[in-house]
Design brief:
Layout: E1 4-8, H1 59-63, E2 66-69, E3 75-78, E4 82-90, E5 97-100, E6 105-109, H2 115-124, H3 126-146, E7 155-158, E8 161-167, E9 174-178, E10 189-193, H4 201-231, E11 237-241, E12 246-251, E13 255-259, H5 267-280, H6 288-295, H7 301-310
Parallel strand pairs: 2-4, 4-6, 8-10, 11-13
Antiparallel strand pairs: 1-12, 3-4, 5-6, 7-8, 9-10, 12-13
Length: about 325
């Protein structure tokens, strides 16, 4: 069996958090043998980074509870700091189950459990439910803010800098132009996209994404060539990934896959992920010895890991 290591993507589109609080319908899946780079926990497999703690409520919010409504809500409960309209279903199960997703709170309960008992369970878990609902709301807000309006003059991050899109029918494909004389705080990079001003948003997006893919492969090849001899490893195959939950992966056979979206980050962050995956070619785990290998080429790895946790990447959907 091929052993594989992976790194999780903190900016994945809104995954559902299927977190039954009492007895889950199925036992948790066994942890894979492969080592993984994930965020935020380093052993044995780092999970997708947790959302930041729910913000403290201001006085006005405390006096006026927040309202969270599931689109298929059939019941409502006041949890103190929030009024939650939740989806409720009867199910063949032994206990009450609760799931907080991007839509809101869903509750499933056996037919023999009364409403009073269900509401008592919700009140018992009120703090957890409210925190998760706030997290989901914040994720949705960040995702909406990260959406790109594909038009002339739009902007997106590239290698930690802002790039302005310019529709330019004279250009072939997409051509990056740099203005060394740009004023402080003014983007110095423009990407000339070879399309007319009548181009659709989908056409602009596809040309820009194809350009980013080419840049990603070029940069990843350069950085792998830089780090491989320093780590005394050999990369047999390098591929691009479009995974929604992983920044990269490495297999014991020398195969490495890196998420093309890494090109939105500055080079120190890209170097960290590249070095992390190449280090797995020596240590297919997250043991102290593995982290020593990473630190041998990336001494300040905590800063780079922080960028992966907290910085957002554009939504291309």
């Amino acid at each position: 069996m091929t052993r594989r290591a992976a790194v999780a993507d903190p900016n994945a589109p809104f995954r559902q958090l299927d977190l039954p609080l009492f007895a889950p319908d199925e036992p948790a899946a066994a942890a894979p043998v492969a080592a993984a780079l994930a965020i935020p926990e380093p052993a044995p497999r780092l999970a997708v980074p947790a959302a930041p703690p729910a913000p403290a409520l201001r006085l006005g919010e405390a006096l006026s509870p927040m309202l969270f409504r599931h689109p298929r809500a059939s019941r409502e409960i006041d949890l103190g700091r929030a009024v939650v309209a939740y989806e409720f279903q009867r199910a063949r199960r032994r206990s009450i189950g609760m799931v907080v997703s991007a839509e809101g709170l869903s509750v499933r309960a056996p037919r023999w459990v009364g409403r009073g008992e269900i509401e008592a369970a919700l009140l018992e878990k009120a703090a957890w439910i409210q925190a998760k609902l706030v997290e989901q709301h914040e994720r949705a807000r960040k995702h909406a803010a990260s959406r790109i309006e594909w038009r002339d003059g739009a902007s997106l991050p590239f290698l930690g800098e802002t790039v302005i899109l310019v529709l330019d029918p004279r250009a072939t494909g997409a051509v990056l132009d740099s203005d060394a004389a740009a004023l402080p705080g003014v983007p110095r990079l423009t990407l000339h996209v070879g399309l007319p001003h009548t181009a659709t948003a989908e056409q602009i997006r596809d040309v820009v994404q194809a350009w980013l893919h080419r840049q990603a492969r070029r940069i990843f090849e350069e950085r792998c060539a830089h780090f491989a001899p320093r780590l005394n490893v050999s990369v047999r195959r390098l591929g691009l990934s479009s995974a929604q939950t992983r920044w990269g992966s490495a297999s014991a056979d020398g195969s490495v896959r890196l998420n093309w979206r890494l090109v939105h980050f500055a080079m120190p962050t890209i170097d960290y992920v590249v070095a992390h995956e190449l280090a797995h070619l020596r240590e297919m785990n997250h043991s102290p010895r593995f982290w020593d290998v990473v630190r041998s080429v990336i001494p300040d790895l905590d800063t780079a890991r922080g960028a992966l946790r907290h910085e957002s990447v554009p939504a291309f959907d």
